[in-house]
Amino acid sequence: ASVTSSQPPLFPSLPPLLFRRLTGYRPAISSGGELIPMFCKKMIQIPRDISRELQSMVDRELEPGESVKWIGMPIPRFFTGASTGSFLFAIPWTAFAIFWMFGAWHQSENVPFTLFGVPFVLIGFGILSVPLFTYRRSFKTVYVITDKRAITFTGGGSTTVRSYPPDTLREIYRKERKDGTGDVVISRRAWRDSDGDRQSEELGFLRVDSPKEIEHMLKYLAEQAAPSNR
Fold first, then answer.
1. In the structure, how many helices (H) and strands (E) does the chain have?
2. Low-confidence ranges of the chain (pLDDT < 50)
3. pLDDT tens sequence across 140-166
4. d(CA 216, CA 172)
5. For residue 148, which phi and psi values (nearest 5 degrees)?
6. Nearest to 149 by CA among 164, 139, 138
7. What pLDDT, on the 0 to 100 scale, is given for residue 18?
8. Complete edge-to-edge strand list for the sheet that includes strand 182-192
């Protein structure tokens, strides 16, 4: 009977190449239609919420021969450190803008003058929506650890891909919360805003389950690559 390679139905939505890199599973289908498992090197848990678009993006990013050791997504949350600060700032901003518009209308009944406050109200509502955007962005973000590097795919209007080779993983640190979730920070990004004030942002595997395990995997990857860098 002839035997042809095929992807098994365990993760039918995964691109075939990504499936093989994640599981090491190479089954076959007999001429009678039965699934014949040939071997299974490893089984990596695939996040249920990962979209086909993200799956394909991870597949395209991987180099020939590069294998995935871990893949995960951030825990969806409306309020993070950044989104909470923006939300609290937007409350008085929006309230003042609305109050100003009502005051301007009652005092002058000048429509053009009153409408001057509309952009500020819209800005306020936009900032109030930051927690919602943060929550939705979690479903467009995926973290990957391979045998060669760590990769983050951060979604939004566009997807930002950051690759961290082993020599950048030696100074990582972990921030763990009481519930066991936390962040594994790989680097920090600094910039100056429009007012010239210095701002910074932590980068890495943020809002993840089992951060200690992830930190261990990243440090192990750095240690394994260390001799080849000497």
1. 7, 10
2. 1-13, 25-43, 229-230
3. 899 999 999 999 998 877 889 999 999
4. 10
5. -125, -20
6. 164
7. 57
8. 173-176, 182-192, 198-208
